[in-house]
Specification:
The protein is an all-alpha fold. The protein has helices at about 5-20, 25, 30-35, 40-65, 70-90, 95-110, 115-120, 125-160, 160-165, 170-180, 195-205, 205-240, 250-260, 260-275, 275-295. The protein is built from 15 helices and no strands.
Length: about 300
């Protein structure tokens, strides 16, 4: 019998380690834009291609977890993540190489985030399973924050290539942890796990499901745009600040902001339970839009 505490803890640590390269490019965006003479459009494409790689691959990879051991998908794609960061450290020379390597990084995340959760929850039952989901998803914010922080510190110390190189060490450690704590599962035959495409049609016809899906898409449009440009925005804002430089660098400030998402998620869930999910979602999203408009 697997120890759920040990399993949850190990997989959360593995997720954080595997995400060390998640925010490295956004954290170093001002430096790379200057060094490579990137336009705002170029930088936007490199940021966007990461999520395009994720979106393209996640549909296939998450679906495969119903018929292929998610542990195998997780380990393979975690290796992709490590290779993407290592490749960026050694090979990135400008727009096109960055575009290719960030695509690979997005595919790596697609095969580790949700497949990792599936691999975790397949071995946990009862109340511990919901707790596993909450801790694992919360670890995404920790990984994002740590990636911003370490990338900024290491780049200031040894340059941006070293920052990507250090980030490449996280995925091998994550692979080792997952290999130790996740047992292999019996493969499910394709015939017993075939995709029923008409079930997707039922989802598209469900107004409530599609409403929340589209709302979540809008939220992600805002969220990932924010994460992609926050360091560049803070760096730009510093030009208008009189006096001494602030004690915290833009990547460190970004890391702190990302950590604030952890209690916010918990508070938002509790508010939804108390006041109703639809009401809270509408109020929060409208408030967020108004605040974004003031910037």
């Amino acid at each position: 019998m697997l120890n759920p505490v040990r399993l949850i803890g190990a997989m959360c640590v593995a997720e954080v380690l595997g995400m060390l390269g998640f925010s490295t490019f956004p954290a170093l965006l001002p430096r790379l834009m200057s060094e490579w003479n990137l336009s705002n459009t170029d930088a936007g494409w490199i940021n966007a291609i990461f999520f395009a790689g994720y979106l393209t691959a996640v549909i296939l990879l998450v679906s495969l977890t119903d018929r292929v051991d998610p542990r195998r998908i997780y380990l393979l794609c975690m290796a992709f993540s490590g290779l993407a960061s290592l490749g960026f450290s050694l090979l990135a020379q400008g727009f096109w190489t960055a575009l290719l390597l960030r695509t690979l990084a997005g595919i790596g995340l697609a095969g580790t985030y949700m497949p990792g959760l599936k691999a975790l929850t397949d071995h946990i039952e009862g109340a511990a399973q919901s707790r596993a989901v909450s801790f694992y998803t919360a670890s995404f914010g920790v990984g994002t924050s740590l990636s911003f922080y370490l990338s900024g510190k290491i780049a200031a110390w040894q340059g941006w290539r070293m920052a990507f190189g250090i980030a490449a060490l996280g995925p091998p450690l994550a692979i080792g942890l997952a290999w130790l704590v996740l047992p292999a599962q019996q493969l499910v035959t394709a015939s017993s796990a075939r995709v029923l495409w008409r079930d997707f049609y039922k989802v598209f016809r469900n107004r409530w499901a599609m409403g929340y899906t589209l709302a979540y898409a809008c939220h992600n449009f805002e969220l990932f745009g924010f994460r992609s440009w926050i360091v560049a925005f803070l760096t730009f804002s510093l030009q208008f600040q009189a006096g001494d430089a602030p004690p915290l660098s833009p990547p460190t400030l970004a890391a702190i902001v990302m950590l604030l998402s952890l209690p916010s998620s918990v508070i938002g869930n509790e508010m939804a339970v108390r006041f109703g999910r639809r009401r809270v979602v509408v109020i929060v999203m409208l408030t967020s839009a108004l605040l974004a408009g003031t910037l």
